[in-house]
Amino acid sequence: MDDRARASEREAMSRVPFARASAGPIRDAYDGIVCDLDGVVYRGTGAVPGAPAALRRLAAHGVRIVYATNNASRLPGEVAEHLGTLGLPATAGDVVTSAQAGAAELTTMLAPGSRILALGGPGVAAALADAGLDAVLPGSPDAEEPVDAVLQGLGRGLTVRDFETAARHLAGGVVWVATNADSTLPLEWGLAPGNGAYVALLAAAVGREPTVVGKPQAPLYRAAVQRLGTRPEATLAVGDRLDTDIAGAAAAGLDSAWLLTGVHRASELLRHHEVGVPTWVLGALGELEQPYAAVFPAADGWTCAGGRVALSASGLDVVAGGARPVELVRAGLTAVLDAVEGGTVGLPELERFAGELDELLDLPGSS
After folding, report:
1. 2 catalytic per annotation
2. What gap in Å lies between CA 359 and CA 267, rounded to an integer?
3. At 102, is the secondary structure helix, strand, or coil?
4. Which of 141-150, 196-205, 280-289, 330-339 has the lowest mean pLDDT?
5. pTM score, two decimals?
6. Which residue, of 78, 151, 212, 299, has the greatest Cβ tally within 10 A?
7. Is the same domain home to 318 and 331?
8. Which member of 3, 31, 36, 362 is catalytic?
9. Choice among 38, 94, 162, 240 that is catalytic
10. What are the pLDDT digits (tens) for 266-279?
């Protein structure tokens, strides 16, 4: 598909959500994929069912794949090793972290060899060194000397004294880059403070905000596209979170595939559609290898793959036809978003429709 055809399809998408169709496999429209990890490839340490096999098939078909993560504390090699345990033959070069994006951002602002306080885990210091910058570790004697910038990423071994050192440098006006602003970190027992919480701590102390490079900002995706060697318009971002993956793809000018295998269910798009509407809505990663049915207006609602969804006073009016649950979800999302844009749906109705959309994914035949 050439760039003119892609531009025409994007224009159609801007008028009607999910109006874009694919007669052949979605993968054929792209040269490369930027793939999120948690919720797409794995959940915790285990694989999302079917995801590794689908990624192996995509790679065998010639689609280039890199994995992009907001996690700045892990080394790319550690991420690749984890992927290897799931059956994916990944190398460190296939992984792009927010720490690497942060180091790349600093190289555009500072001279080679500049001294950077590496406020974070091992991934932060390694990314700075790989980018030709001098990583200064907090707690070392060198950290007492002037630095040119602070690169802040999550580091679970950081101490109060380390943050005091960073605050002293930042108070002097040095450049400040944060790898990401995720406020929470999912752990086995629940949610712990994420890097964004510690960024907020420093911001309150020094009275200013950093440049953030991770999702939903564009730099991490730009670094991933550069690693792939593709063009943005020929690159697909795949993720499960609207507020990071899909919004970040939009910021970088990439098409996006939203997978309903992670934390965000269909209802989240209704509540947070302002962050960006994905190009494709998929029930599983393997659907990238299939044709994609678009949504069309019907006389009494919206239709997709023979199924129809309309809004009524009692809720969603669904006729399944031959459509799969994820195709009914596309039609339902379009119906509700169209009503929201037209101002005919209030908050109580929106919440009811949102819950009913999530229930559609539980119908027999769901991926």
Report:
1. no
2. 10
3. helix
4. 330-339
5. 0.87
6. 151
7. yes
8. 36
9. 38
10. 888 877 777 778 99
